[in-house]
């Protein structure tokens, strides 16, 4: 008989990952407890309550597929659901599957230590709890550790400072205020049009302009919702075969962007622009992320759109990205972002030309000017992919912490596990497709895979599961091969850790595509989990990883590569 504090699994985090993990394990008869720092479920959608926050993968797609009744009964109001609705959805999931009774809220996991004698993890929290579990599953989120930048004088600011990733629950009314927003990523693109409507004056501090595409969001009419629900099986099947795990993206144009004649290219881009969002542009052309010339062609189209939307030519030029290729930083999806800059109360400050000197009590001082502000919004992003894990002292075999092992960048097999940390799973960890996909598809795939491993272990009466040390360099080499084929490695993006001073410059997510990744995982399982050791015994992974990826490359791209 297990005592109260002993579980088969401790799951950290109650976002999309932790909730489904708990439900899945319960269904298989495992005992599990979720530990969550917040006072409720939701993860990303609990914390990011800034005005305008919403998903950028269509709601019907950005939702769980594991329960048919759930997907049929839940009603999404908009093409891109707003944050409160996604939070309500996750609260509904928690209630529907009676999950809260196994979730401990307002508790932060501080330490997880592997005991090689008992073959169990000891997990301790800031509330003084200590749990023992065979498995420790990190559903801590890729974008959950917010980045409070180290800008001189930040603590001297006399007004309120808000972080988009840690927004007050009661909301903020900026009426009558002068507001400064630092950052121009997705969070700023979504929030600034609403802040501009309230504030007396809004100053947006831009270090790097991003590629931004209109959302064309709308309220989904009942007939459209019904039609989508009727074809849910097809939508989900398409997502499994989509390189980004999404069932609703526009099909790829079957000719390379570099090969289309000008009229056809312009017409195709207009068609995609009219659909908007990631839906219209992710995977638009097989060469888009592989060939700088293809990217440049699409970028020129985007630049013209900015010139059309922003009336002041000087401001428009400042907003046109340069120095990184489209997609190599996450595409932003907007509703009225560029139109912001046509308002009299909005000003853009180009930090490349005039960097921030310091923050003072009265505002933000650049090399040229003091921009007075009553409120400061930090839309400065996250210590992505590794940040939340690094904050936990995770000690594996030999007592080394995971953060120490990852000092020069994350080392994993499949982005799922790290050698020396048996029975520790990372849901959408670094080295998995994660943030390059519809995250819910990736989360479901990982949760199902982890549950499969745990079931196999139970059947065999095995105690310890971990990657063979040789599996990691092979996986990293394959990851790098995939990333080096793209334009992504050249950008100073959070994918590369470039937004956090001192963070190693490594391309963290797996870019070989969701189907290739899934196939690799499945083949590994079919081969008795080659590349992993079960109770110290395992076969090396003899799978041709590059071949899995190349096999799914579009024909037109292979032909062009061969011709070159
Ligand atoms: P999270 O939702 O981040 O949940 C992790 C949880 O773990 C958090 O609640 C956190 O409090 C908890 N936690 C972390 N460390 C500890 C600890 N030590 N102890 C206890 N608890 C801990 N992805 C998409 O695919 N499409 C989108 O449209 C999209 N929109 C996004 C919009 C925003 C504003 C942001 C920030 C991200 C968006 N993402 C999107 C990515 C999003 O993070 C994922 O889609 C998804 O919500 C991640 O779920 P998760 O459960 O893995 O992690
Ligand atoms: O963060 P970001 P985000 N001084 O890192 C700037 C998801 N998401 O929260 O680019 C001055 O993209 C930084 O500048 P630079 C989505 O995956 C989705 O907006 O580093 N500026 C950048 O402009 C997204 O990609 C949605 O030069 C500083 C900005 O702050 C991810 O979350 C909505 C600075 C940060 O942009 C992160 O998005 C929101 C400094 N010291 C988030 N430090 C959807 O639309 C940073 N910056 C669904």
What value does the average pLDDT take? 96
Silhouette: globular
Tally the structural domains: 2
What is the second-level CATH architecture of the largest domain? 3-Layer(bba) Sandwich
CATH superfamily of the largest domain: FAD/NAD(P)-binding domain
- Hetero groups bound? flavin-adenine dinucleotide, 3-acetylpyridine adenine dinucleotide
Q: Given the helix and strand composition, which structural class is it? A: alpha/beta
Number of helices: 19
Describe this structure in words.
- The chain has helices at 16-27, 44-47, 68-73, 83-96, 186-198, 222-230, 232-241, 262-275, 277-281, 292-309, 313-319, 337-340, 387-390, 402-405, 439-460, 471-484, 514-526, 545-551, 555-563, and strands at 6-12, 32-35, 103-104, 109-115, 120-125, 130-138, 160-163, 178-182, 201-206, 212-214, 332-334, 346-350, 356-360, 363-366, 370-372, 375-378, 393-395, 424-426, 465-467, 532-534.
- The relative contact order is 0.13.
- The protein is 34% helix and 16% strand.
- The mean pLDDT is 96.
- It is an alpha/beta fold.
- The chain folds into two domains: 6-145 and 384-468, FAD/NAD(P)-binding domain, CATH 3.50.50.60; 178-378, no CATH class.
- Strands 1, 2, 3, 4, 5, 6, 17 and 18 form an eight-stranded mixed β-sheet that branches.
- It has 19 helices and 20 strands.
- Bound molecules: flavin-adenine dinucleotide and 3-acetylpyridine adenine dinucleotide (N01).
- Flavin-adenine dinucleotide is lined by residues 12-18, 35-38, 43-44, 46, 48, 53, 55-57, 62, 108-109, 139-144, 187, 388, 392, 427-428, 438-439, 443.
């Amino acid at each position: 008989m297990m005592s109260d504090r002993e579980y088969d699994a401790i799951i950290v985090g109650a976002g999309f990952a932790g909730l489904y993990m708990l439900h899945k394990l319960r269904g298989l008869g495992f005992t599990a407890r979720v530990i969550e720092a917040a006072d409720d479920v939701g993860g990303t959608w609990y914390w990011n309550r800034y005005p305008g926050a919403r998903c950028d993968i269509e709601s019907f797609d950005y939702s769980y597929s594991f329960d048919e009744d759930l997907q049929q009964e839940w009603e999404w109001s908009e093409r891109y659901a707003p944050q409160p609705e996604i939070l309500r959805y996750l609260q509904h999931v928690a209630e529907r599957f009676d999950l809260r009774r196994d979730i401990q809220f307002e508790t932060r996991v501080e330490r997880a230590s592997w005991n090689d004698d008992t073959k169990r993890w000891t997990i301790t929290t800031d509330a003084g709890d200590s749990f023992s579990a065979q498995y420790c599953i990190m559903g801590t989120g890729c974008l959950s550790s917010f980045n409070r930048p180290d800008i001189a004088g930040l603590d001297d600011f006399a007004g309120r400072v808000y972080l988009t990733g840690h927004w007050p629950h009661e909301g903020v009314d900026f009426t009558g205020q002068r507001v400064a927003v630092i950052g121009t990523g997705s969070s700023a693109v979504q929030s600034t049009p609403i802040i501009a409507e309230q504030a007396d004056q809004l100053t947006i501090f831009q270090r790097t302009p991003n590629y931004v595409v209109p959302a064309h969001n709308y309220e989904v009419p009942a007939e459209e919702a019904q039609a989508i629900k009727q074809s849910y099986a097809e939508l989900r099947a398409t997502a499994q075969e989509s390189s980004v795990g999404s069932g609703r993206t526009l099909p790829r144009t079957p000719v390379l962007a570099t090969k289309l004649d000008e009229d056809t290219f312009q017409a195709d881009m207009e068609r995609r622009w009219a659909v908007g969002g990631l839906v219209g542009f992710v995977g638009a052309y097989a060469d888009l992320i592989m060939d700088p010339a293809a990217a440049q062609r699409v970028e020129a189209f985007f630049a013209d759109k900015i010139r059309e939307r922003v009336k002041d030519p000087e401001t428009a030029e400042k907003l046109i990205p340069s120095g990184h290729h489209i997609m190599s930083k996450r595409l932003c999806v907007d509703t009225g972002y560029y139109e912001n800059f046509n308002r009299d109360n909005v000003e853009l400050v180009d930090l490349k030309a005039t960097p921030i000197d310091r923050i003072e009590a009265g505002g933000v001082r650049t090399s040229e000017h003091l921009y007075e502000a009553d409120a400061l919004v930090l839309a400065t992003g996250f210590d992505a992919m590794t940040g939340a894990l690094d904050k936990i002292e995770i000690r594996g075999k030999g007592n080394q912490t995971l953060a120490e092992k990852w000092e020069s960048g994350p080392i994993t097999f499949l982005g799922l596990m790290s050698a020396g940390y048996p029975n520790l799973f990372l849901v959408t960890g670094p080295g998995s497709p994660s943030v390059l996909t519809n995250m819910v598809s990736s989360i479901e795939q990982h949760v199902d895979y982890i549950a499969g491993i745990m079931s196999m272990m139970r059947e065999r009466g095995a105690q310890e599961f971990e990657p063979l040390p040789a599996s990691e360099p092979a996986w990293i080499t394959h990851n790098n091969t995939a990333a080096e084929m793209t334009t992504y490695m050249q950008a100073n993006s959070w994918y590369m850790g470039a937004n956090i001073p001192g963070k190693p410059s490594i391309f963290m997510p797996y870019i070989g595509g969701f189907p290739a990744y899934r196939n690799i995982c499945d083949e590994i399982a079919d081969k008795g989990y080659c590349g992993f050791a079960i109770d110290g015994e395992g076969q090396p992974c003899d799978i041709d990883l590059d071949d899995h990826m190349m096999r799914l490359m579009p024909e037109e791209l292979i032909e062009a590569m061969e011709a070159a």
